[in-house]
């Protein structure tokens, strides 16, 4: 890998050996002195057109510059200079030919890619053989190629096995149509949820919703839905709530989606639990997202004896003082037990706790 700091230090040495200031060197190369300063600090490299000029000015080769003056036998990169010079002269087909025949390693093209214009890099890649332009190579070239070029290269590489690491690497750079095609081709029983979640922001709502539907139908793990939750459309979330309400989907599955549901949807699920069509444990998981109005309603139903206090004691951390006191009053009147007392203890003041303990002891006599 190119070490920009070493290259920068070498350029600085060559300049000083010629007794040139940064400004004088900049004028000779028709660049700004800030550009020269960035080269010498290792923040950037001279562009493809400037590198040959710089080398000629100091009586060096481009390879000398890019290898920071190391002797030929110790050089890690032996053809970078040639690649740079051919691109500078717009002879991209020759570079492709050298890579195709193995005269030049594709790794060396990857080294110079950050400093090559997209149009020139496109001309090289379109002439590379598919045996050279594997998907992992395309992935590494992705930040430097245009979307249309990438889409075409990916289509050419798709005959081989598509690996998820390649898909996640390409996600920010390819078109949504190409990304969706790759995902569809790769979905199977071993789908890695964390990797799918990583590309979700690039898929679009419509395709995320389609993946959710596949999970509903059983062709994808429900864990996929949990991971995709932030990207699921409101319409699909609402449909999932409907399916929980009619018993088609297990209520426990929807609890993990609670942070992304609207208050109205959460409150609806609570009402379903009240009516017995939804298991009450699901309400405990939804607790942080239940509206104040619905919490108040639940306390009132405990107070009138419609709901057991045991059911909503787990909601105590989310009740305000007024509702908590109403709940405690009902518990003290009829349902106080050691377990209930232990559950409510962290949320009541010392005086109320002492009274509850006394009532429990009197009840036990």
Tell me what you see in this structure.
This protein has a domain at 308-365. Helix content is 63%, strand content 0%. It has 25 helices and no strands.
Short summary of the structure?
By secondary structure, the chain is mostly helical. It has helices spanning 4-17, 22-29, 33-41, 50-57, 62-66, 80-88, 92-101, 106-112, 118-125, 135-141, 147-157, 164-170, 176-186, 193-199, 205-217, 222-228, 234-245, 251-255, 263-274, 281-286, 292-303, 309-312, 321-335, 338-344, 350-364. The protein has a domain at 308-365.
Sum up the overall morphology in one term.
elongated
Radius of gyration: 33 Å
Helix percent band: 55-70%
**Main β sheet profile:** none
Regarding quaternary structure, what we see is single chain
Round the mean pLDDT to the nearest integer and report it. 83
- Number of DSSP-assigned strands: 0
Percent of sequence in beta strands:
under 5%
**How far do the termini sit from each other?**
82 Å
Find the structural class using helix and strand composition. mainly alpha
Instruction: Extract low-pLDDT stretches.
Output: none
Tally of DSSP helical segments: 25
Order of helices and strands: HHHHHHHHHHHHHHHHHHHHHHHHH
């Amino acid at each position: 890998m190119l070490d920009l700091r070493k290259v920068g230090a070498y350029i600085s040495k060559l300049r000083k050996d010629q007794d040139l200031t940064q400004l004088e060197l900049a004028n000779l190369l028709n660049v700004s002195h800030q550009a020269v300063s960035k080269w010498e600090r290792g923040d950037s490299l001279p562009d493809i057109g400037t590198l040959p000029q710089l080398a000629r000015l100091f009586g060096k080769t481009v390879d000398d510059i890019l290898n920071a003056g190391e002797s030929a036998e110790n050089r890690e990169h032996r053809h970078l200079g040639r690649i740079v010079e051919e691109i500078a002269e717009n002879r991209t087909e020759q570079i492709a030919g050298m890579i195709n025949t193995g005269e030049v390693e594709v790794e060396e093209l990857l080294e110079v890619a950050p400093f090559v214009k997209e149009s020139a890099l496109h001309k090289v890649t379109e002439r590379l053989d598919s045996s050279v332009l594997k998907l992992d190579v395309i992935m590494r070239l992705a930040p430097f190629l245009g979307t249309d070029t990438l889409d075409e290269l990916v289509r050419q590489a798709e005959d081989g096995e598509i690996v998820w690491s390649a898909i996640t690497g390409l996600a920010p750079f390819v078109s949504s149509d190409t990304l969706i095609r790759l995902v569809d081709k790769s979905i199977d029983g071993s789908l890695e949820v964390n990797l799918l979640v990583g590309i979700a922001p690039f898929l679009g709502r419509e395709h995320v919703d389609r993946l959710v539907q596949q999970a509903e139908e059983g062709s994808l793990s429900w864990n996929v839905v949990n991971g995709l939750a932030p990207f699921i459309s409101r319409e699909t979330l609402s449909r999932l709530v409907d399916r929980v309400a009619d018993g088609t989907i297990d209520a426990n599955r929807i609890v993990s989606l609670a942070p992304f549901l609207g208050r109205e949807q959460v409150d609806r699920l609570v009402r379903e639990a009240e009516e017995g069509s939804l298991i009450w444990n699901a309400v405990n998981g939804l607790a942080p997202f239940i509206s104040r109005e619905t919490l108040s309603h639940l306390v009132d139903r405990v107070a009138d004896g419609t709901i057991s206090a045991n059911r909503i004691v787990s909601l105590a951390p989310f009740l305000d003082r007024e509702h908590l006191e109403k709940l405690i009053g009902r518990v003290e009147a009829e349902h106080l037990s050691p377990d209930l007392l232990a559950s409510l203890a962290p949320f009541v003041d010392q005086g109320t706790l002492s009274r509850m303990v006394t009532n429990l002891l009197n009840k036990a006599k």
